[in-house]
Amino acid sequence: MMRSSEGGRGKVGWGSGANRLPWALTRRTGFLLSLLGQLSRDATEQALEPLRIKPHHYGLLVVLAEGGPAPQQAVRESLSIEKSSMVVFVDHLERLRLVERHRNPENRRACKLTLTAAGRELLSEAKPLIEKVEEAVLAPLDDAQRRHLHQLLLSLLPHSGERTHG
Length: 166
Hints:
This protein has helices at 23-26, 29-48, 55-67, 72-78, 83-95, 117-138, 143-156; strands at 2-3, 11-14, 19-22, 70-71, 99-104, 107-115. The chain is of the alpha+beta class.
C-alpha cells in the first residue's frame, strides 16, 4: 500500500495501483480486514475449485481431521457457521463422500460427522493449495511480521485462549 503525500490523506493503492481507495476507508482496520479477507477467500476459492470444495468446506474437513468424529452442532459452533448453511455444507461434503453423517439414535435431529478416507485424501491435496494462497497473500511480510500478524489475529478471536493454535 502507498499513501499519497497529502498529509497521509487521499488515496491508497493496492497492487498495480489500478484500484484506489479513499483514506476514509483505508484508515479503518475493520474495512482492511474485511477487504483482505475477501481477497484471500476469493483466491482460496479459485485454488480449491478443482477439488470441488470451498474454504468453508475445507475448514469443516480440517476440524474433523484434527478432532475426530464430532457432533454436527459442535463443528458448526467451532466454525461460527449458521445452522442452515451448515446443512448445505455437510450435504455437499456427503455427496462427494468426504464425510459421513450418522444420526444419534437418542436424538434423531442430532448428527455425528465423520471424515472418510476420501476426505483425508482430499485434505492432503488441498493443503499445498491453501499454503500457496497464504504465501501469496502474505508475501509482502517477513517471517517475524507473519508471526506477529498471526498472534494479533488470534488475540482478536473470541475464546482464542481456550484453543491450541500452532
